[in-house]
Design goal:
By secondary structure, this protein is an alpha+beta fold. It is built from 6 helices and 9 strands. 34% of the residues are buried.
Length: 180
C-alpha cells in the first residue's frame, strides 16, 4: 500500500554525487536543512538516454532561479558516479550534459528511490519523480511522471514559489499574484 508523503518528514538521504565542479562528493537532505535550504530532488531513469538530458540541462540552465529561491537542486538516478561523470563530460551536442550547475547523485543501492516510492524494482531504475522539501525537512510536494515524459521547469519553479508564499494559491497562480 502506498503511504502519503506530503506533509510528513521526507526520507533522509546521503548519496555520493558528482558535484558541479565535477569532483566527487556527497549530498544529503540533512546538509540542506542545516543550511536552511529548500531541496528540489528529482529522479530520472538512466544516464545516456534521450528524454533525461533535456530535463537535466533545462534544470541546470535555470539553476540561478532556484538558487535565488534558496533551493538546492539534486538530480538522482541509479547509475554510478563514474557514469554520471562520463555523461557530464560528454558535450550536449553529442547527447551529453556538458557543464551542470548542481550535483548528480548516485543511488546505486536503490535505497533512496525505494524510500521515495519511485523505484521500478524489476528494472532497477527510477521513475521521473520530483520532490520539494522545505528547510525543516517536511515534504511539501511530490509528483511522479511516466519515464517517456520530461518535466516542466517553469512548473517546478512556480510550485516552489507558491509553497514559499505560505498562503493559499489558487489554480493557475503565478508569482506576483495575490494569494487567497
Amino acid at each position: 500500500m502506498v503511504e502519503r508523503m506530503v506533509g510528513t518528514q521526507a526520507p533522509r538521504f546521503e548519496m555520493e554525487a558528482v558535484m558541479k565542479d565535477k569532483s566527487f562528493g556527497k549530498v544529503s537532505l540533512e546538509e540542506n536543512m542545516k543550511n536552511d535550504k529548500w531541496t528540489v530532488l528529482f529522479f530520472y531513469p538512466m544516464d545516456f538516454t534521450f528524454v533525461c538530458p533535456t530535463e537535466i540541462t533545462a534544470m541546470s540552465d535555470r539553476y540561478d532561479e532556484f538558487e535565488d529561491l534558496d533551493a538546492e537542486v539534486i538530480g538522482v538516478s541509479t547509475d554510478t558516479i563514474h557514469t554520471h561523470k562520463a555523461w557530464i563530460n560528454t558535450d550536449r551536442k553529442d547527447n551529453g550534459l556538458g557543464e551542470l550547475n548542481y550535483p548528480l547523485a548516485a543511488d546505486t543501492n536503490h535505497e533512496v528511490a525505494r524510500n521515495y516510492g519511485v523505484l521500478i524494482e524489476e528494472e532497477g531504475i527510477a521513475l521521473r519523480g520530483l520532490f520539494i522539501v522545505n528547510p525543516e525537512g517536511e515534504m511539501q510536494y511530490q509528483t511522479v511522471f511516466h519515464n517517456n515524459i520530461g518535466r516542466d521547469v517553469d512548473e517546478t519553479l512556480r510550485v516552489l514559489q507558491a509553497l514559499q508564499t505560505g498562503g493559499l494559491c489558487p489554480a493557475n497562480w503565478r508569482p506576483g499574484q495575490k494569494t487567497l
